[in-house]
Design goal:
Blueprint: H1 2-25, E1 28-33, E2 42-43, E3 48-54, E4 72-74, E5 89-90, E6 97-103, E7 117-123, E8 125-127, E9 130-131, E10 135-147, E11 159-165, H2 169-177, E12 181-186, E13 198-199
Antiparallel strand pairs: 1-3, 2-4, 3-13, 4-5, 6-11, 7-10, 7-12, 8-9, 10-11
Length: 217
C-alpha cells in the first residue's frame, strides 16, 4: 500500500514539473513595430514584424497577425520594436486626429524626429517682414515626418508633417495662410516602457529555454 502511495506521489510530482516546464515553453505569435508608428497612421504588414513570444495570461492584450485584416490605426506613438498592444490601436473612424504640414521658420532641433512630441508656436505676421509675439497654438503634436530639401544640411525651413487633433486644424491653417512664423518645440512626454516578454529563439520555437519565464505585465 505504501509503495502504491509512493508511486502515485512520484507520478504526481513528475506531472506537475512537466506541466510547469511545458507552460514555460508555450509561445504565441505577436506583432512588433518595425519602425516608429504615429497616431492616426494605418498599421499595415509593412510596418510590423511577427514574433513568437511568451506572454502567458497577457496574450489577449496584444495583436496577432490576423488582427491586421480589419484595418487599424495607431492611437499613440508606438516605438520601433515595441509589441503592439490592443490599447494602442483602434478603428480609423474613431481616431480624432489628422495630419497637417507646416514649414518651420527656425532650425528644427536634432532631437526632433519621427514620433517626437512637439509644441507648435506661431509668431503672427503684423507687417511685411515683421512678426508679433509668438504664442503656442498647439500644445501637443506628433511628428510624422520631417522633409528637408536634398543637399541641405540645416533643417531651417524644413517642412514638418504633424499629427494634430482635428479641432486644432483650423487655427494651424489660419496661421499658415496668414504668413505666421511657425516653430516646433520639443516636449518631453514620459511614457511607460513597453513590456518585454521573453522571445523564442529564431528557428528554435519548439525548444525554448527550460527556465520558466514570468508573464508580461
Amino acid at each position: 500500500m505504501r509503495l502504491a502511495i509512493g508511486i502515485v506521489l512520484v507520478l504526481t510530482s513528475v506531472a506537475g514539473v512537466w506541466f510547469i516546464v511545458h507552460a514555460a515553453r508555450v509561445t504565441e505569435p505577436a506583432l512588433a513595430a518595425s519602425r516608429p508608428l504615429v497616431p492616426g497612421q494605418t498599421v499595415t504588414a509593412a510596418d510590423v514584424v511577427e514574433l513568437e513570444v511568451r506572454l502567458g495570461e497577457a496574450a489577449d492584450g496584444y495583436l496577432t497577425p490576423a488582427d491586421l485584416e480589419g484595418g487599424l490605426v495607431a492611437t499613440r506613438v508606438i516605438d520601433s520594436g515595441e509589441l503592439l498592444a490592443r490599447g494602442a490601436v483602434d478603428e480609423a473612424d474613431v481616431v480624432d486626429a489628422t495630419t497637417v504640414v507646416v514649414r518651420s521658420a527656425l532650425d528644427v532641433p536634432e532631437v526632433v524626429e519621427r514620433g517626437s512630441t512637439v509644441e507648435l508656436w506661431a509668431a503672427p505676421l503684423v507687417a511685411p517682414g515683421e512678426h508679433g509675439e509668438p504664442e503656442s497654438i498647439v500644445a501637443s503634436a506628433t511628428v510624422a515626418e520631417i522633409r528637408t530639401e536634398e543637399g541641405v544640411v540645416s533643417q531651417a525651413g524644413a517642412a514638418l508633417e504633424l499629427v494634430v487633433a482635428r479641432d486644432a486644424v483650423a487655427v494651424v491653417l489660419e496661421h499658415v495662410a496668414g504668413g505666421s512664423a511657425l516653430s516646433a518645440v520639443p516636449v518631453a512626454v514620459p511614457r511607460e516602457p513597453a513590456p518585454a516578454p521573453e522571445q523564442a529563439g529564431a528557428g528554435d520555437e519548439a525548444t525554448p529555454s527550460p527556465a520558466p519565464a514570468e508573464d508580461a505585465e
